[in-house]
Design brief:
amino acid transmembrane transporter activity; LeuE-type; cell membrane; mainly alpha; single chain; 213 residues; transmembrane helix
Length: 213
């Protein structure tokens, strides 16, 4: 269990789309935006973790058609989200420039509704077949090998992974919120949104062009 927890924590802490999206939403929507994105992300992970534990992910990966459909849907959603972030970055930059010219202090554009943060976090993971592939290949390495207990162990490890995800990103959101006064400057926020959009677009392209297995 300790070995699994350490390996899982290292993987969770590695920079990636989740971190980029949570960072952006924590800046735009405050701590609540970041936490809701995090909860959505862990719910998306739970879909694949639970499916892997009961063997559904293995069936999905065995079907080239099902895998391709999910892959295209996930890539399309990430690309759509990337475009929205790039457009938001442009609006934020214009808002900051207008505020500087008018002396209003750099108010940011309106944040999305809170449910949107939860939806973004959930769909970015739930529609990503690479997450399913990760759990199917990662979890079995730590199972004891007993057929009868494999499902229970897989569910336990999936739960541990989810708790570590929540713990790490909970601390991360708190840190971003702490630095929020500087990070929420329009020029900084626009750059973060731009980088996040480019990163998600790159992930979408990579996901769409990757081989099925």
């Amino acid at each position: 269990m300790t070995t699994f927890a350490l390996a899982a924590l290292v993987l969770i802490m590695m920079p990636g789309p989740d971190q980029a999206l949570i960072t952006r939403n924590a800046l735009v929507g405050g701590r609540a935006g970041g936490l809701l994105t995090m909860v959505g992300g862990v719910l998306g992970l739970t879909v694949h973790a639970g499916a892997a534990a009961v063997g559904l992910s293995a069936l999905l990966l065995a079907s080239a058609t099902a895998f391709t459909v999910l892959k295209i849907a996930g890539a399309a959603y990430l690309l759509w989200l990337a475009v929205q972030l790039l457009r938001s970055a442009a609006r934020t930059r214009r808002s900051g420039a207008s505020a500087d010219a008018g002396g209003s202090g750099g108010a940011l554009v309106a944040a999305p509704r809170r449910w949107a943060y939860l939806r973004q976090g959930f769909l970015s993971n739930a529609l990503n077949p690479k997450v399913a592939l990760f759990f199917v290949t990662f979890l079995p390495q730590f199972l004891s090998g007993g057929v009868a207990s494999a499902r229970a162990e897989a569910l336990l490890f999936s739960g541990v992974f989810a708790l570590l995800y929540l713990a790490w990103f909970g601390l991360y959101v708190a840190a971003v919120d702490r630095l929020g006064r500087w990070l929420r400057r329009p020029s900084v926020t626009a750059r973060i949104e731009q980088v996040t959009g480019v990163l998600l677009a790159a992930v979408a392209v990579r996901l769409a062009t990757a081989a099925n297995h």
